[in-house]
């Protein structure tokens, strides 16, 4: 049957219902999906040797004839061997297959095959184990550069390569060429069909390079064009124009002098707010760098110009904390600060809402529910949020409705410091301010990586800190002892050892620290219980707080001087850095102990980075190198299209080139309305699905 790009995978040979369902799991429903499913790596299977000449220890292809019927033997339950002797003009070789019984019938004596594998032993005792093989006269998977795909259970690389080979042969040339001819020419990019052919089955290394370059460029080019549209649309919108106020009265409210970096970020935001266009700015700073004060300054400016401000925190705990901090700083100037959280009594909420609508609250702090229906602002001019809750375009119009038609200024606070170049892309439609300086007088947190053998000493250390009047966090990765794993999913090794918060807190209180005050908090507690525990800790009524990562972002208890992270290997570096940032926020020397029983060299090397630096930007760069940017932001990447082949952190040169190309093209055809640019415009619309009105 003739295949087209739209053909379903069921039309491919060997694909029944079961396999189709598995392919579906990889997002592969059609021929086009398969062509867009890129290999994660390649294996060079081009080198052919005779049995005698094959080098030892390198994977190579050897053409040989099966000399005798394969012999199958059962060694024990679960272990079965199939052995076969093969020969060529120069020698012979014994091949062993483990648990591949089908081989006995697949290899026919007297027939020649190509075996791809590692040759061991010297002539005349040459051996090979578990090679890939296929008939010599019909080679498909040997004698070429083979793609290696990301797989799922029940889908082998051979199966998938068989499918992509067929699709590439039949349909690669049909892939639509969307890149404008001029762009391809100016940037020396390979044609579309050629690239899809060679990304799967490259005829040479050079061909693979050309294909990769084009496909990566293409992806980054669409991204750049889309971002440019988002930006230009914002530049056309109007926002509340704040007056250009002196900030001196604000500075006078503070018990400390702001750092240069804080002042710079405030100036940048103030400039945006006075511009008449809606601000959309990201403030990123390392843990403890004092981002909250930038938020406070903006609220002050809004108030001075007669606008209301709203600050949304990711959790109730943080909302309460911000409420305390911000009213502490701003109330003395006359600003009326209100708090609205889900766990407040209905009557209290009603009062706050009424005051807000009457314009009697200048700054409302709460969780993101404060922007829900039923909460009406008299004159909303500024919204401060965190990166997880930043707004999509749709929500922006809801915001504008609350702002009386004008799009309020938006300030986004990020707790994850990432390299600026990357931030500009990932948060593409935001301007970025970086706070790259810590308030003076902070001593870096001393960090240790220890094994289980140091547990007793670590507990002694906890006692010493508490004896000195300090407080201690102990962070564990999971809530319940051993959760039943979801169907068919293997629990990760050592799962049962994961320190579970509730049980662990109880053990600590009863067995280890009967004389200390131990509390716990985790995400499954009721908000009221969570707050009670946090408030007890913040108020000094607890010595030790056992917790999950609910304390990760933003919690500020300056008296805490030690944080212990159990099963530290389960956390990403940036996350550990965030956790560590919960201590070292006051004047006391602080410590972070990462404990793990994992002896894997790589894991330990990764964790070691934390003992060597306290620079969040450096740590996030390491994290990026190790885990790629996808992990950072979850799968969503804030509504930006998912990258299939480009690596935002690694392909920076091509990214720059693609950005320049996008700028040049948009300078000529700013709305992409020329007929030859229609496919491009369509493509951008498809990729930026979450920004439905990208071209409005
Ligand atoms: N310029 C400054 N001088 C001295 N202390 C400061 C300064 N700016 C902020 N602080 C204090 O430093 C602590 C951390 O500030 P803040 O909570 O704003 O940090 P943050 O950047 O939000 O960090 P995190 O992301 O870790 O929550 C607070 O106790 C705050 O009062």
Automatic annotation (TrEMBL):
Belongs to the helicase family. RecG subfamily. NCBIfam families: PRK10917.1-3, PRK10917.2-2, recG. InterPro entries: ATP-dep_DNA_helicase_RecG, DEAD/DEAH_box_helicase_dom, Helicase_ATP-bd, Helicase_C-like, NA-bd_OB-fold, P-loop_NTPase, RecG/Mfd, RecG_dom3_C. PANTHER family: ATP-DEPENDENT DNA HELICASE HOMOLOG RECG, CHLOROPLASTIC. SUPFAM superfamilies: Nucleic acid-binding proteins, P-loop containing nucleoside triphosphate hydrolases. It comes from the Bacteria. It catalyses: Couples ATP hydrolysis with the unwinding of duplex DNA by translocating in the 3'-5' direction; ATP + H2O = ADP + phosphate + H(+). Its EC number is 5.6.2.4. GO terms for molecular function: helicase activity. Keywords: ATP-binding, DNA damage, DNA recombination, DNA repair, DNA-binding, Helicase, Hydrolase, Isomerase, Nucleotide-binding. Plays a critical role in recombination and DNA repair. Helps process Holliday junction intermediates to mature products by catalyzing branch migration. Has replication fork regression activity, unwinds stalled or blocked replication forks to make a HJ that can be resolved. Has a DNA unwinding activity characteristic of a DNA helicase with 3'-5' polarity. It holds the Pfam family RecG_wedge. Residues 272-435 form the Helicase ATP-binding domain. The lineage of its organism: Bacteria, Bacillati, Bacillota, Clostridia, Eubacteriales. This is ATP-dependent DNA helicase RecG. It is an enzyme of class 5 (isomerase). Residues 457-625 form the Helicase C-terminal domain.
